[in-house]
Amino acid sequence: DMAAFRALEAFAQLGTELDPATQKQLDRGKRMVELLKQPQYQPMDVIDQVLSIHAGTRGFLDDLPLARVPEFERELLKHYRDEFPEVRDQLAREKKLTDEIDAKLKEVVKNFKTRFTTASGAKKPAMAKA
Predict the structure, then answer these.
(1) Which of 7, 66, 69, 123 is the most buried (most CB within 10 A)?
(2) For residues 13 and 45, is the Cβ–Cβ distance under 8 A?
(3) What is the spatial distance between Cα 92 and Cα 46, in angstroms, rounded to a whole number?
(4) Exposed (0-12), middle (13-18) or buried (19+): which is 72, by Cβ within 10 Å?
(5) pTM for the model
(6) Exposed, middle or buried, 52 (CB in 10 Å: 0-12/13-18/19+)?
(7) What are the extents of the domains in the chain?
(8) In 3-state terms, what secondary structure has residue 45?
């Protein structure tokens, strides 16, 4: 996905008009780049990386302003640590994203996003696709 994003990003710089599907893919790629950023010498926990990337690839960030992505990620990971440590533990034990874990993660992120966008006064979130 990131390679496709980089290719589209380079193509978009040519100033050509993009169709909505291509623009959506570019927008998601920009959000994924924000999720993947880490401070120097402060590597992110692998479980946190999985949780962040899951939210991004499942479309939960698609309608967030790009500038809000780091805050959303920070708050989402805190939400998992504080409210759903058992989900983190299950993911660490299984070491893979099973259908059961995927469903739990989607539910947690969906509910968190509703609270996040309501608390911040942002527009009501669109439904993310699986």
Answers:
(1) 69
(2) no
(3) 9
(4) buried
(5) 0.79
(6) buried
(7) 2-120
(8) coil
**Three-state secondary structure along 73-114?**
HHHHHHHHHHHCHHHHHHHHHHCCCCHHHHHHHHHHHHHHHH
pLDDT digits (tens, 9 = 90+) for 14-40: 666 777 887 788 888 899 999 999 989
What would the DSSP string read from start to end of 8-19?
Answer: HHHHHTTT----
Instruction: Tell me the C-alpha distance between 62 and 27, whole Å.
Output: 7
At the topology level, CATH places domain 2-120 in Lysin (1.20.150)
Place of tokens 């790629």: 29
Residue 36 is encoded by which pair of tokens? 């993947």
For residue range 65-119, list pLDDT tens digits in order. Answer: 999 999 999 999 999 999 999 999 999 999 999 999 999 999 999 999 999 988 8
Q: How far apart are CA 105 and CA 80, in angstroms?
A: 9
